[in-house]
Amino acid sequence: MDEKKIARINELYKKSKAEGLNDAELREQALLRREYIESFKRNLRSQLDNIDIKEADGSITNLGEKYGNKIKKGN
Question: How many domains does the chain have?
């Protein structure tokens, strides 16, 4: 999500608190918020997929591979 869209989310929030939003602005706000949340989830999932955990037995487990969100190394 680019900075313009984030700025628009903030602008709509401030306007909603100051004077309220019309129907078109409410729809735009909901759409932008949904897009922001999806973008946040994708970024977080990408980070989590790249985390390796050292197990008690010394082996390394990749969270993305363990939970099926990442292609296993060597495949």
Answer: 1
Rounded CA gap, 2 and 7, in Å? 9
Residue 74 is assigned to a structural domain of this protein: no
The end-to-end CA distance of the chain, in Å, is 31
Do residues 63 and 48 touch, judged by C-beta distance below 8 A? yes
For 73, phi and psi rounded to 5 degrees? Answer: -60, 140
* Residue 74: pLDDT band with limits 50, 70, 90: low
pTM to 2 decimal places: 0.71
* Each residue's pLDDT tens digit, 42-73: 999 888 888 999 999 999 998 888 886 666 55
16 is a domain residue: yes
- Domain for residue 72, yes or no? no
Q: Report if residue 25 sits inside a domain.
A: yes
